[in-house]
Amino acid sequence: MTEIPRGRSETHDIDRHLLRYVVDLPHPMGHVWHAVASPEGLARWLGATDALEPRLGGRVTLCGPDGAEYVDGRVTAWDPEYVAEYTLDPPHPDRAARAGPTAHAADIADTADPPHGRIRFHLEPGRTDAAGSAVLRFTAEVRGTSEDRIDRLADWHAHLERLAEALDDAAEGGAGARVAGVRETGVREAGVREPGVRRRELREAYARDEALWPVWEP
Question: With b meaning 16 or more CB within 10 Å and e meaning fewer, what string describes 109-135?
Fold first, then answer.
């Protein structure tokens, strides 16, 4: 699977954090765009999309990992094939769950709340080969404490790992087999760590990065 490099962060105004990741993906830009800017693509690694109007100012609604929470927002930047930016409100736990292609709650129960704030996917052509490739520059702007910032770094790293996994799976002919990183059978492949365990590993790695002598061991 594609390795996700460590995310970086900047803090402004005490509690406003900007998270940055740069990921080289060995997949054509069109495939990556579909994964980050369509309901079907987002459902395979992030969560069900109850609404996504593909235009500037369009409405977007993402489902939380347990299917019971929804986050509403707007499309705040839209350049087809290149830039998709969503500005999302905090989740609404009182909203009733609705049917949709969500992940199995037991598999990702240890992940944090659904993402909120501003998230931006910026695609660039990668080092061209026969099949094509893309560079994803992902940013997320969130508010919270320093601990919240570490949580979000780990959360988005885990999400991007699931994105890479979904793209790999689609390239191997399993385009419809995964929903947010879980196969339809509910059986996890041998050697693949459970998402909750992986998220805790990432959280510990990002916390170590805060130490005086950090050692990054993802």
Answer: eebebbbbbbbbbbbeebeeeeebbbb
Crossing angle, helix 195-208 and helix 146-171, to 10 degrees?
130
Instruction: Give whole-number Cα distances, 35 to 5, 9, 132, 137, in Å.
Output: 19, 24, 16, 14
Q: Does the reported pTM lie above 0.70?
A: yes
137: tokens are: 């520059």
DSSP secondary structure string for all residues of the chain: ----PPPEEEEETTTEEEEEEEEEESS-HHHHHHHHHSHHHHHTTT--EEEE--STT-EEEEE-TTSS-EEEEEEEEEETTTEEEEEEPPPBTTSPP---SPPPGGGSTTS-SPP-EEEEEEEEE-S--SS--EEEEEEEEEE--HHHHHHHHHHHHHHHHHHHHHHHHHHTT-TTTEETTEETT-PPPTTPPPHHHHHHHHHHHHHHTTSSS-----
Per-residue pLDDT of the chain (218 residues; tens, 9 = 90+): 688 999 999 998 888 999 999 999 999 999 999 999 999 999 999 988 888 999 999 999 988 655 656 788 999 999 999 999 999 987 665 554 443 333 333 333 334 444 568 999 999 998 766 568 999 999 999 888 999 999 999 999 999 999 999 999 998 876 444 445 443 333 344 445 566 899 999 999 999 887 655 566 66
